[in-house]
Write a structure and sequence with these properties.
single chain; 294 residues; mainly alpha; disordered N terminus
Amino acid sequence: MQATTPNTEKSFFIGVTDFLKLIRFKNLLIILLTQWMGRIFLIGPKSDWKLMFQDVGFWLLCLSTMLIAAAGYIINDYYDIKIDAINKPKKQVIGKVMKRRVAIFTHTIFNFIGIVIGLILSKEVGTVCFFVTFWLWLYSNDLKRRAFIGNISVAAMTSISIFLINIYFAEHNKAIYQFGIFAFFVSLIREVIKDLEDKEGDAKFGCKTLPIIWGDQKTKKLIYLLFVLFIVISIGMISRMSQLYFQYYFIFLSIPAFYIMFRLYKANKSKDYSVLSAMIKYYMIAGILGMLFI
């Protein structure tokens, strides 16, 4: 008995670690941070931010968003077992640690709870939650294998997690929409870069992503175009904001953005694109922290 206890404990902790990896726990924390900061600094009032901890409805909104996002990650990996075995063999959970039927059951439960919570909060929030769950399933099952449509889908779902704050509080806060647009473009650029990273595995299973159809160089040109469009739109939005220190923050934030594009120009291996994908994730977090200056 004593000899088997450490192995049991070890397997338990490995299981928890793998599950957190499956649901992209770090990404879920970014979603929580984004909604939390949006609630304090954009919806406010900042002077009564401590009262936010008593806002049960807001925390239910965060829980609903995180459950649906986690379900989206699960169903994505469920459909990508064979592709991930090539692209990310060390990160694969479904099919190795978790059985497929357990994964699909967990996905269904998470979605069900997320939608029910959304409906409890309001019809509008519930409707958005239902739409997102359906779209994430459609993305994993079909859209992600189509050039650019899948990339736009993920970017849109990312921005909706921010727009939900306005929907729940029945606000028309322009800053929330601005941060939502920021999240959309940064997420879109990251998704296209991830396609460059995963090109080898995607090609073997008939996926029609941009790098497979166009090649790396044309795909990079599209990313540069998206980056320029993102900068132009951002300048237009920032120029309308009265907070001068936020404008300075944007200028400061543009420095790593140009550096990322330079690294993209030099990138030619899957490992290079993987590093860029991680850099963009941290860049998005830095952008979210800009809420502190609103």
